[in-house]
Amino acid sequence: xxxxxxxxxxxxxxxxxxxxxxxxxxxxxxxxxxxxxxxxxxxxxxxxxxxxxxxxxxxxxxxxxxxxxxxxxxxxxxxxxxxxxxxxxxxxxxxxxxxxxxxxxxxxxxxxxxxxxxxxxxxxxxxxxxxxxxxxxxxxxxxxxx
Length: 146
Description:
Layout: H1 7-45, H2 50-67, E1 73-74, H3 75-78, E2 87-89, E3 94-99, H4 104-116, E4 125-130, H5 140-144
């Protein structure tokens, strides 16, 4: 007779395997994101913004998967330099601004354009994906004066 593993033992081993795989993916993602941040910071410090444009397309499959947005497109392909937002899924009503500028003024300007251009008629949600390290702090006065 061969010893059989208990059902609970099999489930525990599978769960542990999934957790290990999830940790591995998280570590790989952290590594990739840190490399992107450094590359974006170096490029923008040289006045080059072409990396931002390339990353708009690179983030589409990631955002499609993470947010379950199969209809997400680069709006700048639809209209060159689409004003205020970069990616959009008008089916699920979600928009993204991809930027390397992390200032509160940039956030306010993006929200202002979103409102002024009445994008809220097409999109219910706006995400601002910042490709650089966040600012050290934001003043309370600045944040409340949108």
